[in-house]
């Protein structure tokens, strides 16, 4: 009788034991055990299908399900003994099942391969991570809406080239962040469509000779449908790359929010106060309060972009179908999901507690001749060509710089020396309030429009 070596996959084929280092080198159990519950979920569905098509008896089916449920408990209770000898999460669970229920355990793998099994596990895992990430984005968006509503009238300088450009409302600025997150969510939902397709049944690469019912398994696992081609099923990791791409964009957005928070909380801007709970001190400079959380989030955006590159390079030039290279997809994927979840959580918790220093924002908006465009628009409304108006305003700004005054602080006589069509009503447009109030079209910064945008967004988020 053939000697069955439980410690080595396909043992009968081998005459030599695996090199001790190679065993460690090729094992993935240290990181893929994270997909244990998905692996069990997939196995339960597979066993149910094998039972349905008559491959497993009632008793075998019941034993397998009970055994898998026991293992699930053991894993949740941290009692499960993971072994590197069993290489990965799939083999560890299957070996334990056989230990628990005997021969029936060995029948679970009928009509299946670890190649379609692992592809299924990753998809199940990613699907639930996407759902968690989307709910965290919803939390962050809700926080942004609350602050935007509160600060709909608060005036701050809007920047281009990080130079004061035109006054905007703080609420409007926060709603710009909100919009980025709207797109982020759309991208995740779109990616989810391609994640939620079931590769199980492709087996190693060519399918199986058993009369499997893939639609049934897909339904049990709540996949939208089974995949269409067995070779593609086991080798496709496009969905993982898409997830990393969507994740990279989210992190890029968070890094931009972070950068603004870091700048705004500096002594030079002094627009906001970050909550103490989200900052730390310096070990040497007692006066310091460092914006650690936004800085760390900004830094972490790099690693997610790196994971996207790793996954793209991992798949580049791989011949069909499954290759062991693919084992390298897990760590970048897991870390992408973890980083997104942690960073979004930090932001969602921090945003509601940001204090806005309205007076400083207002003062800064007054400083950079931010209503110069409003003066030009005023002249145009009075009949001047825009290019001429641009010239007139340039002269007025020059006078302001030379005498260290804002446009609104120049006298009517002083303004009239540049154009006699300027009258007393010019001061309405030179004020910051007048400037923002006039931008009341769809998408504009006027407080009324900001409140409207917040209401609309609340309705869309169902809050
Ligand atoms: N641990 C492997 C992975 O993560 C599972 C599939 C292994 N299949 C194989 N034929 N070696 O991809």
Description:
The protein is mainly alpha-helical and 463 residues long. It has three domains: 20-110, Fumarase/aspartase (N-terminal domain) (Fumarase C, Chain B, domain 1), CATH 1.10.275; 115-160 and 169-362, Fumarase/aspartase (Central domain) (Fumarase C, Chain A, domain 2); 366-461, Ribonucleotide Reductase Protein R1, domain 1. The protein has helices spanning 20-26, 29-32, 36-52, 58-76, 89-101, 114-150, 170-195, 214-220, 230-235, 238-264, 292-315, 330-350, 358-367, 372-381, 386-403, 412-416, 426-430, 432-438, 447-461, and strands at residues 155-160, 163-169, 197-198, 225-226, 272-273, 355-356. Helix 3 (36-52) crosses helix 8 and helix 11 runs antiparallel to helix 12. The radius of gyration is 31 Å and the shape is elongated.
What is the number of helices?
19
Order of helices and strands: HHHHHHEEHEHEHHEHHEHHHHHHH
Unreliable segments (pLDDT under 50, ≥5 consecutive)? 1-5
User: What is the beta-strand fraction?
Assistant: under 5%
Rg: 31 Å
| Structural class determined from secondary elements | mainly alpha
Please tell me what the overall shape is. elongated
Task: Identify every distinct bound molecule in the structure, by name, code or SMILES.
Answer: arginine
Average of per-residue pLDDT values: 95
| Main sheet attributes: strand count, strand direction, barrel closure | 2 strands, antiparallel
CATH domain topology of the largest domain = Fumarase C, Chain A, domain 2
């Amino acid at each position: 009788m053939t000697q069955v070596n439980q410690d080595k996959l396909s043992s009968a084929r081998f005459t030599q034991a695996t090199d001790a280092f190679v065993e460690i080198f090729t094992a993935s159990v240290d990181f893929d055990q994270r997909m244990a519950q998905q692996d069990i979920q997939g196995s339960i569905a597979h066993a149910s299908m094998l039972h349905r098509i008559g491959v497993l008896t009632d008793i075998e089916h019941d034993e397998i399900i009970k055994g898998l449920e026991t293992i699930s408990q053991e894993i949740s209770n941290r009692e499960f003994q993971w072994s590197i000898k069993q290489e990965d999460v799939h083999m560890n669970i299957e070996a334990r099942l056989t230990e628990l229920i005997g021969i029936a355990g060995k029948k679970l793998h009928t009509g299946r391969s670890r190649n379609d099994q692992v592809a299924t596990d990753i998809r199940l895992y990613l699907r639930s991570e996407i759902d968690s990430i989307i709910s965290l984005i919803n939390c962050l968006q809700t926080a942004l809406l609350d602050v935007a509503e509160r600060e709909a009238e608060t005036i701050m300088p809007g920047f281009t080239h990080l130079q004061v450009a035109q006054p905007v409302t703080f609420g409007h600025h926060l709603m710009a962040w909100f919009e980025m997150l709207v797109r982020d969510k759309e991208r995740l939902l779109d990616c989810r469509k391609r994640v939620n397709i079931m590769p199980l049944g492709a087996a190693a690469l060519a399918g199986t000779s058993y009369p499997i019912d893939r639609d049934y398994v897909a339904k049990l696992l709540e996949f939208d449908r089974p995949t269409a081609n067995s070779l593609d099923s086991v080798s496709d990791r496009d969905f993982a790359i898409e997830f990393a791409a969507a994740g990279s964009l989210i992190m890029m957005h968070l890094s931009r929010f972070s950068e603004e928070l870091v700048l705004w909380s500096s002594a030079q801007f002094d627009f906001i106060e970050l909550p103490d709970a989200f900052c730390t001190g310096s070990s040497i400079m007692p006066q310091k309060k460092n914006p650690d959380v936004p800085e760390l989030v900004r830094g972490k955006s790099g690693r997610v972009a790196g994971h996207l590159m790793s996954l793209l390079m991992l798949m580049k030039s791989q011949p069909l179908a499954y290759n062991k290279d693919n084992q390298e997809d897990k760590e970048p994927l897991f870390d992408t999901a973890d980083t997104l979840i942690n960073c979004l959580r930090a932001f969602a918790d921090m945003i509601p507690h940001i204090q806005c220093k309205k007076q400083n924002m207002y003062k800064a908006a007054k400083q950079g001749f931010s209503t110069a465009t409003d003066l030009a628009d005023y002249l145009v409304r009075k009949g001047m060509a825009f290019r001429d108006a641009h010239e007139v305003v340039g002269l007025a700004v020059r006078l302001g710089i030379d005498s260290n005054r804002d446009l609104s602080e120049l006298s009517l006589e002083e303004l009239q020396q540049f154009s006699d069509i300027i009258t007393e009503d010019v001061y309405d447009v030179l004020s910051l309030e007048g400037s923002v109030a006039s931008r009341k079209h769809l998408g504009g910064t006027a407080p009324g429009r900001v409140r409207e945008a917040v209401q609309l967004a609340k309705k869309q988020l169902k809050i």
